[in-house]
Specification:
Elements lengths: L3 H7 L3 H12 L10 H8 L7 H26 L1 H9 L1 H5 L4 H14 L3 H4 L11 H6 L4 H29 L5 H38 L1
């Protein structure tokens, strides 16, 4: 990772954004903060990239990674997925049984919409496609919710890159990456709080309507 991150920052373009967001969205751990905010920051000072296209290509990459998890889970089934989570390689990928179980519980609790909300929740974002595949969720709604959720998160990351360009004097993409990592964690938890409140309100309305 120590050598990979500098390479990504040095070679940022639309294809690198797509590739590494696909990796980030699959079972291989790679932080999205390394990709989208620096690319958005670069797009403000270079005609070679456009901030809106950065979000588009990042979202395409996220969809690719999510589809990898979705189809692997659907084809392999729960026993093999949990065996992988318990394996040494799974642990190297920062996946364990507890994380997969948490993602499944989140999916079962919130249904198909969790593939949207889950893309905004730290520690669930990369894994929410696994229970969707295990449950046999239809592809079209899965891809729709995943795209909307990924686009929302990537827009937040791109906005961080834009704001860092406009309101700071950072000079390198590595400085942007470190600042974005700090702020994205704070924003991620704020979004998590908003999601919890929104879901609580939806549940409350449903319970009240049944009464």
């Amino acid at each position: 990772m120590e050598t990979l991150i500098p390479w990504v920052l040095e070679h940022l373009n639309y294809w690198v954004v797509t590739l590494f967001m696909a990796i980030e969205s699959s079972f291989i751990p790679f932080p999205s903060e390394v990709v989208v905010p620096p690319a958005a920051w670069m797009s403000m000072s270079s005609a070679e990239m456009n901030i809106f296209l950065v979000v588009v290509f990042a979202t395409v990459g996220a969809d690719i990674g999510a589809l990898i998890n979705y189809y692997l889970s659907r084809w392999l089934g729960r026993p093999i997925i949990y065996r992988f989570a318990d394996s040494r390689f799974g642990h190297l990928c920062l996946i364990d049984r507890q994380k997969v179980e948490n993602a499944e519980k989140y999916f079962l609790r919130h249904g198909a919409a969790s593939t949207f909300f889950g893309r905004l929740v730290p520690a669930v974002r990369q894994l929410i496609s696994i229970p969707a595949g295990l449950s046999g969720m239809p592809l079209r709604p899965f891809l729709l919710y995943t795209t909307l959720g990924a686009a929302s998160w990537n827009s937040v990351l791109a906005l961080i890159g834009y704001l860092l360009y406009r309101f700071t004097d950072l000079k390198t993409v590595d400085d942007v990456r470190m600042a974005a990592t700090k702020y994205s964690h704070e924003i991620g938890y704020a979004i998590l709080g908003i999601v919890v409140v929104a879901l609580g309100y939806i549940v409350y309305k449903q319970v009240r309507s049944k009464k």
